[in-house]
Please model this.
Amino acid sequence: MIEVSRRSTKTLKTDGLHLHYREEQDIYNLVHYVIYGNNGKAPIYVNGKGITVYPQLSAQQIAEEMLKIQQLYHKCRGLRIRHEFVTITKDEFPDKRCCTTQIRQIADRFGDYYFYSGFQCVYSVFEELDRYVIRYAINTVSPMDGAKYSYNEYDIWEREQCCIECIVGQVTGKPGREFDFRELEYY
Amino acid sequence: MKLSKEIGQKGLIKEIFVKSSPSKSQRTCRYNAQKAAAHVFKIKEGLNRMIPLIHDEATKEILNEIIKEAAKL
Model:
């Protein structure tokens, strides 16, 4: 099973996140969660796109970078950060020895989807018993032109789902859907 | 003569211009900052991709310095 999901409500979930995604503090909290994890669960891989990754990833620095973009474009209302996550069950990986390498490649490649759409993101891979969960914290304001990412449109969700299925297919060698990165605005 | 010389200096002329049209200047400044943000966004990603491909320590150090400076932008 490969599935893209998103969260934008304050409902308390099993991962302990209790965010509204509309305050400055929520940006920091989500980025912190993505980088360091919580409830004793640490990610197995962390990276980002369009943000400062080297010499080290810092939640404070990344949150500030995202905030600066929002202030620059005067877009400090509504949803400030998006929380999307991709769930991939382990049976999607035919070669069990390469799971860790492949899930990193998938996370990076799907991060490119947001980068080439013009958005900053930080992401990490969490390993669970039967699945991997890749969590993305995405700045809702584009540094390229200040556009806000539409959150609830079905078309966007469908495109993301198509993209991730294509990437998983390419990385694992299983037949998947077709997706062309050239469709993206800043490819 | 002295006064006109002073006014003629670049800094003073700039100051008078800014005071007479603050909104236009601010708009230009913000527009430039937004353009710069778009470039920084792309540059940062380019550097992030380049670092893992470099195995020479000296080059890595130089790139790290550039990234540190880019992080301040």
